[in-house]
Amino acid sequence: MAFSKSKVKDHRSQVTGQKVSKVAAVGIVAVCLTGLLGSMSLAQGPQTRSLPTFEVDPAWPQVPAKWKLGDPSSFAIDAQDNVWLLHRPRTLPKEQASMAAPPVMVFDSSGKFIKAWGGAGNGYEWPEREHGIHVDAKGFVWLGGNNCPTNGIQGLKPVADDQLLKFTTDGKLVMQVGRSNQSKGNADTKNLHRPADAWVNAPTNEVFVADGYGNHRVIVLDADTGAFKRMWGAFAEQPKDDDHCEVVTPKTFDDPGPRNFSIVHALRVARDGMVYVADRENRRIQSFTSDGKFVKQLVKADTQFARNVALSPDRDQQFLYVGNGDDIVIVDRRTLEIIGSIKPKGLKNGGHQIATDSKGNIYIAQTTMGLQKLTFKGMSPGSK
To answer: Both 27 and 173 in a single domain?
Structure first.
């Protein structure tokens, strides 16, 4: 129990009234003051917040022996907590090309294989370089690519992936938005330009696209028709054209930083409509309202921050998970403050793209380094 200064004086008066010696009185007061200061120190010291904890599942997933995976690029989770992987079969070495798995692979949360499909077909333009995948609340599968005509990658057509594809869960085409190699820049509302990621906001039936590698914008489309709704760039300003194949990383980082997005690499829309955008090469996360109003940003200059972004699955979605080079940082979604780090034993890196399921597990697509599942192990002890 903490003592106030008045209580210390009252206690000393009582001791004096009982004719206790000055030495004893001083000793008692010292003890009381020690208790007082100790309680004050505890109350004013740093408080620990309960945070999610994880461990690597080394056995995940179970890829059929007849197939080999190329570079894993992205994960998505459906309403049944099945895990959808988009990988790049054409990255396999020539001697393994005949064993390439279809680019879309589906597993359950334990890693058991369910099905696979995807690749070139009639009626659509499959991306040359697979990049992002998303499964919406209705069960439709959205995917896009980031190929650039002059990237020099062997075996790929010299075209830009300027389209977004929508499929059923069995791989039947529903809609293609945009056409390969047809982008006319950030003002173009018909075509995308090497889109990195997409997310459907179910309440408004809108697909938000991180567009991306060639363009530098968030573009919002009607999820049924693909019709243009709105778009914005960094700080909700008009995006500017700055098209090039090479990845350009600034040499210095400051806050607020460039007024244009660099690579709009990932985005998520929370249940309350807030939009979180990973501006990868500028090493920042920016948040917006669903109608495109800029709210705030988080810049982290000392690491490869903002590789990706995902939401924790709790009711309030209180955490953002953000790839940070060799770990994943935990960010308070409301304040955009870094409050923790995820780096369990065996973690390879913070990934290229990440996804979370309803149980709190994190799935990391790490391209040339493979893929990993981080199993949620509960919340750490914390104090209020």
So the answer is: no
